[in-house]
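Ribose-5-phosphate isomerase A
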Amino acid sequence: MIDMDALKRQAAARALEEVESGMRLGLGTGSTAKHFVDLLGEKVRAGVKIVGVPTSEATRAQAEACGVPLTTLDEIDRLDITIDGADEINPALDLIKGGGGALLREKIVASASARMIVIADDSKWVERLGRFPLPIEVIPFGLAATQRAMGEAFAKAGVSGQMLLRKSADGHVFVTDGGHWIIDVRLGEIEDPPRLAGLLSAIPGVVEHGLFIGLGSTAILAGAQGIRVIQRP
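Structure:
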């Protein structure tokens, strides 16, 4: 049996090699990014000077526990690297993210970074995005109208799928750090992710979506055969 958690840690460890003293880092959210923050804490305790911007309250709490110095994008205007995981990665290094519910802050932080390094086990590598349900963060107000507009956007992009309001383990509606809700949509293969991304972004009730187009610069994938490092074409 392949230890997926060990693969995630291997990818995180390889990404840590890109970190140099003095850097300003975006710190991702999720199971693979969690390994990176743990390892980064060890590096900080060994004397490396960095500062991080967390992409969620969960990552903030973990980074503080690990002794990683933190700042905000109000205090600094640019990050050197964001290191984050992904739910899917295609050969263009476009991504689906948001399985952990932090897609809005993740996209803000990635967009403020000179580079985004995506770390994952190699099961996340796909030829076409869409196997993983696409998370779409929405305003609760006017939800039905927003969903109708989303359905129209899907039709224009040549995809369709059932829209499911995300629930927490306790059965209540999942609420993001920004106070929004998430609709998950299992679309199948997305023929044209950039087009769908643009259509969704134009909907007033959509806060953000999990299509990360043109943001990933490097992917570090860990698999049974070792580490692969892929640069965006």
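Residues 4-126+214-231 form a domain with the Rossmann fold fold (CATH 3.40.50.1360).
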